[in-house]
Amino acid sequence: MDLTIKLAEKGRGLTSPNPMVGCIIVKRGRIVGKGFHKKAGTEHAEVLALNDAGKKAVNSTMYVSLEPCSHWGRTPPCTERIVEAGVREVIIGMKDTNPLVDGFRELKFRGLKTKIGILDKEAKKLNEAYIKYMKTKRPFVIIKVAMSADGRIATKSGDSKYITSTEARTYVHQLRTEVDAVMVGLNTVLRDNPELTPRLAKGKDPMKIVVDSSLKIPKNCNLMKNPAKLIIAVTNRASKGDIKKMQQKGVTIIPAKSKMGMVDLQDLMKQLGKHEITSVMIEGGSELNSSAIKDKMVDKIIIFTAPKIIGNGLGAIGNLGINKIDKAINLKDSFVRKIGKDIMIEGYL
Question: What is the pLDDT of residues 122-135, one digit of tens each?
Fold first, then answer.
């Protein structure tokens, strides 16, 4: 199953809104077929592995990281192909959180020996974004912070290029290829004019989301160079004329509810879910970071700390209303690693 999960990871960043799935077929102690899901709408891992195994699939054992589908979607049900191929036993990593999927019971009903929950924890971590999306229809949200040793993301003048090392930035660019969208606030666009592309890594270019209540984004900023990749969240403070001009350029405008004059982030996440965006990485400033945390919509935080001291500058996370240390937010399942000269802390909220 461990090999199956590693095989599934080859589809990271490419399968959304579908999960990453790996499948290995074993017969007489030898691997006779392999497959992993490559893109939504294409053949599932089980079908690819069965095609690879051919006639050797008869009386074999199939290892699959996620419960096989048993319903008609963009592709036929995998359970039918598994039964038709003559597979004897199916070992499943985790149950699919999609309520339409009941492959485990279907395969047992059809007479196959079936086990589920093998390396369940590892299988769930692999598809943490898919699981949240299936349960809530909202994206899995990551906050990424790059800061100095004294907690600054920019100098007093707003200069922030570059606090962390090339190695850390390359790691972040790889993360960008793995999420559906990267989100910033208008202030970050005005201050940094970011591209938010994964230019230091190989992989897909994510959607860019700008939280911009009044639609004040500069028309000549870097993000406007590829309007088809740009989503701007606005409130009723944005003029209808400006919205129409942006839409004519190819920009997707999401009119969100207003909360104290700003974009209601919970409403925005709900709407992003309707656009089949299953994961978002926030790379904004302190106010967007703190607003997202206070609204309890953040699942994971990744902090890169550089061995530099800036002094008086812009903080990483704004006011959370915490006045006592015992009220501080404790990260769960956190771990620390070194990337280049920087320290990375990753944990769940």
Answer: 999 999 999 999 99
